[in-house]
Amino acid sequence: MFLLVLVAVVRGETVLEGFPPPAGASRVEADAFGAWLRARPLHPEGRPVLTHKGDVVPIGAARVLDLPIGTRDLQQCADSALRLRATWERTVGRAPAFHYTSGYLSTWAAWAGGTRVKVSGSKVQAVPGAATPSDSDAAFEGWLMDLFMYAGTRSLPLDTVAVTTPLPGDIVVQPGSPGHAVVLLDVATDGARSWVLVGQGYMPAMDFHVVAGPAAGWFPVEGDMLPTTPLAVPWSGLRRWK
Known about the structure:
Elements: H1 2-11, H2 15-18, E1 26-27, H3 32-38, E2 49-50, E3 56-57, E4 61-64, H4 77-91, E5 97-99, E6 105-107, H5 108-112, E7 116-120, E8 123-127, H6 137-150, E9 160-162, E10 171-174, E11 180-189, E12 194-200, E13 209-211, E14 218-220, E15 225-226, E16 233-234, E17 238-241
């Protein structure tokens, strides 16, 4: 009994456990990525959103996810979405690959094989053999930090397709400078209405957190905009990973 209790304490709450659907609503069926997002661990209630430097961010968050952000000002909104997708793909044995804003396709397989990139303006040159091959967690983190430097809200459309009905794992993107991107961590319906649980990063690089929606964290799917703060995003930007 003691061991079971200890394991529960160490594991902590997940997105699934921390955010039951609004009254009368039920979660929609999720694919493997959506189910993985629902299983992401949360920091304890009351944990503030922190920047990459450890400073407290005065931003309205329902909860903070236990997700690395690195020590540089790189993992912002689009980058948080990229980390989640890339981490899941690596976990299930896929080969993560995402585009820079320039259109260059950055692949984890090439990076793990020792290839690095040389960037000059919009010109990107792959340099095979520039580093010792490694598929370690540290190498993966290095690949992500490189990706975050050159990807963003303008590149996300290159790796996603437009959809009209939200599912867990979808993103909502407003490309631009500044643009914004959020992740739909969960989706529920009550027949007539749909609800979404929204996660986001922002500037400067900060903890990925659940945005405080009006229904115990959830937002109704209505109107033209998803009213996340500090930046709302248009429902016309609803997209799904290829």
